[in-house]
Amino acid sequence: EEEVPATMERAIQRFFLGKDHSPRILVGAVMAMAVSRAAMALVPGGETFDHLDLLVLALVCQFWMFQEWWLHKYLLHSFKWWGQEYHHQHHLLDYYYVSIDPVWLVVSWFLAAFGLFYLLLPTDLCLSATFAYSAMGLLYEFCHYLAHTKVMPKNRLLRAIKLHHMKHHFVDEDSWFAFSGLYIDSLLKTAPSGEELVK
């Protein structure tokens, strides 16, 4: 059985340099999209980075947070299907374990997102959108992984994410679905108060 990291240094090392390839694939995707978008802006007559890129970046980041909540609540905690069963196994494991999504899942999401953005947006904005989507995917992967390690982060945001996720696992798995945007649980009324939980 693999030892679960207990220090931030070890957790970072295990995430980026360990046996799981998904984090490195996501880093590669983020870098590839950034370099591709920069190259488009640098070629003569190319599409410069402008307010539309900023708008797309902001919208995709917000979309990711709501998508993450929706998928967690309605696909992974609702009706019976393979994904719900797979996620249920995650809840049955010891809380502290190395939790990194498999390569097939990460690559599938990346390709689906890129394909959708390619169909909907001009190439320059497609690259910006896929950059944001991949960056949010990397953020999610790291934060979810870190939440399941023995590390209690000193960083306030990372600590809040970990404690939020622990409530989902230990208090009520029908609440606290958000990850990257914790405010979404409050907005969508899935962050109950102590009084609501007693009822």
Automatic annotation (TrEMBL):
Q: What is this protein called?
A: Fatty acid hydroxylase domain-containing protein
Q: Name one GO biological process term.
A: lipid biosynthetic process
Origin species, per record, is Guillardia theta (strain CCMP2712)
Q: Name one Pfam family in it.
A: FA_hydroxylase
TM ranges: 25-43, 95-121
Q: What residue stretches are annotated with the Fatty acid hydroxylase domain? A: 59-190
Database matches in InterPro entries:
Fatty_acid_hydroxylase
The molecular function GO annotations come to: iron ion binding; oxidoreductase activity
Q: Which UniProt key words apply to this protein?
A: Membrane, Transmembrane, Transmembrane helix
